[in-house]
Amino acid sequence: MLILLLFAVIAIIAAILVVSMKNIMHCALFLALFLLSVAGIFFYLDADFLGIVQILVYVGGIIVLILFAVMLTSRVSSALLEQTNEQKGLAIAACLLLAAAITAAAFRTPLATTLNPVKAEGTTHFTGELLLTVYALPFEIASIVLLVALIGAIVLAGKKGE
Amino acid sequence: MMFLPLIGLSAIIFAIGVYGALTRRNAIGILMSLELMFNAANINLVTANKYLNLENSVGIIFPIFIITIAAAEAAVGLAIILSLYRQTKTVYVEKINIMKW
Amino acid sequence: MINHAYIIPFLPLAAFAVNIFFGKKLKGVSAYIGIAAVSAAFLMSLSIFFAFLGGAQRFEVNPEWLNLGAVKFGMGFLVDGMTSVMLIVVTLVSLLVQIYSIGYMHGDPRYPRYYAYLGLFTFSMLLLVIANNFAMMFVSWELVGVSSYLLIGFWFEKKSASDAGKKAFITNKFGDFGFSIGIMMIFAFCGTLNFGEVADAISKGTLSGSALTLAGILVFCGAVGKSAQFPLHVWLPDAMEGPTPVSALIHAATMVAAGVYLVARTYFLYAASPTASAVVAYTGVFTAFFAATMALVATDIKRVLAFSTVSQLGYMIMALGVGGYTAGMFHLTTHAFFKALLFLGAGSVIHGAATQDIRDMGGLGKHMKITMVTFFIACLAISGIPPFSGFYSKDEVLLAAFNYSKPVYIVATFTAFMTAFYMFRLFFRTFTGEMRTKLHPHESPYTMTIPLMVLAALSIVAGWLFVQGHAFESLVHFKEGAAEEGNALVVWISIAASVIGIGLALAVYVLKIVPDGFFRNKFPRIHKVLINKWYVDEFYDKTVIKPSLNLARRLFSFDAKYIDGAVNLTGIINVVISKLHNVFDKAAVDGAVNGVAEAAQSGGGLLRRVQTGLVQNYMLLLVAGAALAVVVFFFVK
Predict the structure, then answer these.
(1) Structural domain count of chain A
(2) Torsion angle, CA of C118/C124/C130/C132, rounded to 10 degrees?
(3) DSSP assignment letter at A76
(4) Which domain does A127 fall in, by range?
(5) Which of A69, A93, C118, C184 holds its CA 20 to 30 A away from the CA of C617?
(6) How many domains does chain B have?
(7) Three-class DSSP labels, C15-60
(8) What is the 8-class DSSP label of residue C308?
């Protein structure tokens, strides 16, 4: 319980820092911290496989990608420039309203909550089985989506005329 | 029972993500905020899987696909930003307003 | 393999798709695509055929296609002994024709398109063969019509070719009209279109009496059109304008056989109605005789063969009408081989000698040995000389006619005599004697002669092989039962008729005992009638085409005078009213419209400021809206 609380606090703080830091490079590093803490939450919630995927794909892949993009465009994104636009106040109000509304809605929705029993071997085995049986088709489609994204990214970012 | 607090956590993170997407001037910053929102959704799903009786572990499988899509989105999004940067020499979204009449 | 017979038609369809879309790039390769597809189809057909020889059972799949509540349509396929024979005939002839066409169509600017059309035709024909219901039959029937139209008019730059295509298509439509009404009638009575279910309904008496007879005759109308029976035979001689391999495929072995196949497939209609089968029988025998007389005098090599085809189709139809179900299909099979051989041989002659008129030919045998020998074999086969294939099938047809009615039998035998005469007239005039005009004949390339040899071999052995142990009868029979007793008298009379016919041709054209032109000079009137094809075309021109044109012209002038006048008057009145409206519009309506436009413009000028072009602005409003939506949805009752 305490661990969960710790991770939750770290996640919230890191998230706030991600959206408010002036140096975009620091933002990316805090995003990594945030993602790690979310992975921790996943572990706590018995989603072992998901936690590992989170670390591998997000922290290992996407963060590196973002860092590359930051460095490639760093000439204009110096810390001296204002990083947020002028609708900050309105945005804070709207977001607070949103968060409050969602939470309140969740509290007012009657859901039959039960604590699902933890399996001895964890959920990874079961997840793998599902991915190759019930969810085989979405799984394959997701792989195609990734391939298309890969090609699309190369086409978009590749230099013209070479 | 940590169900409602966790839902609240995901709502807060989601709101932070929305805030980032609304206020960041840097396009890369907006992309990072999007990642925050994705993660909020994932926390929500995993929580539901843990505390609600869901069939076929939807709450664990679905985040896998979300992560896949997020990875694809990040790759394409960053490629677009790089290509835009080459064209306009900026990553600040309010400067990229050639579609405005 | 039988369970997957539905694959067979789709192989040529795939070849069609490839050739029609990528033909320009493929060029010469398109022929090999077509040949590969149809070879695969042939091999599959062969395995199905042997499965049935080995005693396989009739196989039908009938999945639901359309469910309209009370009425359900199935759309499946049916494979039985008859289907397996037809599959072999269609795929084999198509394969040989496609190989032959490599040489014949060499250098044609639309070569890939030609192969595409052949693929489409083969697909339609195979679909027709495996159809298990009237609807599917009708669809493929029309597809066959379309693809034959495309192929007959393949050289559409030639006016005569495009006219022939149209003629074939429209003439067929007359028959199809009856066919479609027949199908609707069957559906109205039986509530199903599946062959097996309709047959059950007939045996239960749901469709009987004069309704059954009428339905049978209407369905037969389709066969009359497609199999070129009198009175819709006029398209077939003209269809010879198409490339010769096409004539071999369409007008010898497959498309024209579709009519015969239709009658055989729906034989339950005719078995239950003696009147309908009598119509079939007399139509058939009359056509057989009638076409043979025209073949006696025709001078274009392909037209002789066309009339001969009409005549032989009449034979098959007659056989079905007189109850010789097996005999009719047997003759169809053997005829497919030797008539395809004749057409391909004729193509080889045309290719080598560059003329189609037999009066200009003669002595070509010296230069075209393979063509001559194979052509000779085909002539013997069609004349019914034992042991060639035509003998066995023709003998069975005549036997069935003999048991049915003596006058029919006599006419049929006389037709056999004429057949032998005109085929050998053709042969002697083309290949023997002296060359009548200066030609430079040469033997055709191997791609053309090899199909000839294969077909010649089949023309020799097919008949004999099929009667071994009643093989054909075990494949194609309407009801279980003993084979009909052979009749030595019928056999000897039919052989005698053929031999006399050949002898007469020999006497006239080789030995010159009877001078050439003797009959022409003796009976000039009959000759004139025959050479003009009994004036059927002229008759149609006077009775159908001219009146329709006249009616159309009358309607046109009526339109021009009265209807146009009325329309114009209305127009003038409208113009006057419009003038009045105009004045009112300018003052009142335009003023209002302009006022609205100005209001919109100034309003737009103000609202334009909202459109900042910054996506984040829009998104902020979106988020605020979403939050408000949540609040309203959950907290405002």
Answers:
(1) 2
(2) 180
(3) T
(4) 121-162
(5) A69
(6) 1
(7) HHHHHHHHHHHHCCHHHHHHHHHHHHHHHHHHHHHHHHHCCCCCEE
(8) H
From chain C, the residues in CB contact with A105 under 8 A are 630, 633-634
Average pLDDT, chain B: 86
Q: Answer whether residue B69 is part of any domain.
A: yes
Nearest residue to B25 via CA among A21, A48, C107, C573: A21
**Residues of chain C predicted below pLDDT 50:** none
Torsion angle, CA of C144/C150/C152/C154, rounded to 10 degrees? -150
CATH code, domain with A20: 1.20.120.1200
Specify if B72 maps to a domain.
Answer: yes
10 Å Cβ neighbour count for C300?
A: 17
Amino acid at C443: E
Rounded to an integer, what distance in angstroms lies between the CA atom of residue C637 and that of residue C632?
8
Residue bearing tokens 């070569």:
C111
CA distance C571 to C577: 10
- Tell whether B21 is covered by a domain: yes
C549 touches chain A (CB under 8 A): no
Q: B97–C619: do the CB atoms touch at under 8 Å?
A: no
> Nearest CA of chain A to the CA of B99: how many Å?
19
> Touching check for C626 and chain A: CB below 8 Å?
yes
C630 with A85: Cβ contact below 8 A: no
C-alpha closest to that of B6 among A47, C623, C183, C477: A47
Average pLDDT over residues A141-151: 92
Q: What is the pLDDT of residues C140-174, one digit of tens each?
A: 999 988 888 888 888 888 888 888 888 888 888 88
Partners of residue A65 in chain B, C-beta under 8 Å: 74-75, 78
Least confident of A38-52, A115-129, C222-236: A115-129
Compute, in degrees rounded to 10, the torsion defined by CA atoms C272, C278, C283, C288: 100
- Report the relative pairing of strands C59-61 and C71-74 from DSSP bridges: unpaired
Q: Can you give the pLDDT at residue C456?
A: 87
Q: Which two tokens stand for residue B68?
A: 């896949």
Q: How far is A107 from chain B (nearest CA, A)?
A: 7
Residue C109, chain A, CB below 8 Å: the answer is no
Give the integer Cα–Cα distance in Å for C260 and C257: 5
Is the pTM value of this prediction over 0.90? no
- Using CB atoms, which chains have 3+ pairs under 8 A with A? B, C
Rounded mean pLDDT, B77-88: 86
Cα–Cα distance for residue pair C412/C399, rounded to 1 Å: 10
| Prediction ipTM score | 0.90
Contacts of C620 in chain A (CB under 8 A): 87, 90-91, 94
Phi, psi of C295 (to 5 degrees): -65, -25
Statement to judge: residues A4 and A77 lie in one domain: yes
For chain A, percent of residues with pLDDT exceeding 90: 26
Assess if residue B100 is contained within a domain: no
Give the residue from C22, C247, C262, C17 showing the smallest Cα distance to C123: C17
Whether B23 has its CB under 8 Å from any CB of chain C: the answer is: yes
User: Residue C563: is it exposed, middle or buried by C-beta count within 10 angstroms (0-12/13-18/19+)?
Assistant: exposed
The answer to whether the Cβ–Cβ distance between A34 and B36 falls below 8 Å is yes
- The Cα B11–Cα A103 span in angstroms is 6
CA distance C507 to A100: 112
**CA gap B46, A123 in Å, rounded:** 12
| Model confidence band, residue A162 (pLDDT cutoffs 50, 70, 90) | very low
Indicate whether A69 and A126 sit together in one domain: no
Strands C59-61 and C64-68, sheet pairing: unpaired
| 3-state SS record for B13-65 | HHHHHHHHHHHECEHHHHHHHHHHHHHHHHHHHHHHHHHCCCHHHHHHHHHHH
